[in-house]
Amino acid sequence: MTRPPLPQMLTTALSRWTLLLPPLAAVLLALVWGRTLPNAVAALAGLVLVLAVLAAVHHAEVVAHRVGEPLGSLVLAVAVTVIEVALIVTLMVDSAAKNATLARDTVFAAVMITCNGIVGLCLLLGSLRTRVAVFNPEGTGAALATVATLATLSLALPSFTTSTPGPDFSPTQLTFASVAALVLYGLFVTTQTVRHREYFLPPELIDRPTADDRHGEIHGGTHDGTHDELPSTRETTTSLVLLMVALVAVVGLAKTVSPTIERGVTAAGLPASVMGVVIAMLVLLPETIAAVRAAKRDEVQTGLNLALGSAMASIGLTIPSVALASIWLSGPLVLGLGASHLVLLALTVAVGTLTVIPGRATPLQGGVHLSVLAGYVVLAVSP
Question: What confidence tens digit (pLDDT) does each residue in 194-207 have?
Fold first, then answer.
């Protein structure tokens, strides 16, 4: 009996690993839930947590491949945001006064990581591969405009209102920001998936002569003319179930190891806002991996859809969720950004606008976005 080729063996091993990991992570969560973990056990839980995130990436990509672009990007964005929302709300329930700024810090970190980190990586990798990264400015510009509006209404505006002292919204203002976030996010999803779906496809797919050709390219094709076989209904259903299990395990394990992370942040003498950065980096790991893979395949538009869709979902779903949770939370909900973060947000919007308008980018644009992210990280560690 001959042995299968090495790539086939690796693919089989990866498939089995992603099938086994979510149930194992769920079992570990059941064993450690509600307990104070020693450092060694917390380290093990953290490792399983990262592996569960990677498994979630795999299963989300299977589902996304079946439904096609741009709906596939939306699937992963919403899945990741579910992790973020659940984690923020559970941590705020545990200690509302201590974590009053957690939602703001996490959402803003998500915006900076997606709009500068993931976008920068996609543009850099895509342009290094083909000299110039090409994308659709209509859809990407609409996504960036929505992110900028949501971030301004939810994170910048509270720093300038006068109804309540400090960077807080009054109940009326918070209700408006939450409703506006949901409405704008709903409008964007409708635009992306129904009315103007072609705006969020790579430019070369829009020019396909027939609907059948475009359908085949969207769902299984690659830019070199080859076509991948779509996952079966059984495979897609299995991946969807395991994705849900992985997401539950990630949220639970993250909550379990968060006290250890908080102690580490305090022991290192870092600001409390670093906790929000850690959460955002953790929950956006699936998006980052998926976007980098897309950029390496010369699918820059898919990477940009993932990045900006995640930023939008992070604001559009997190702010209403924490606003609803604040009804029974005893502590304040601080959403307003400080001066340095307002400058970074304005710079991000300005740079992003200049990047999107031409519909083409070189490594320079990727480097500019990554430098803005680097500045944010430095200020987060040393404000």
Answer: 777 787 877 766 55
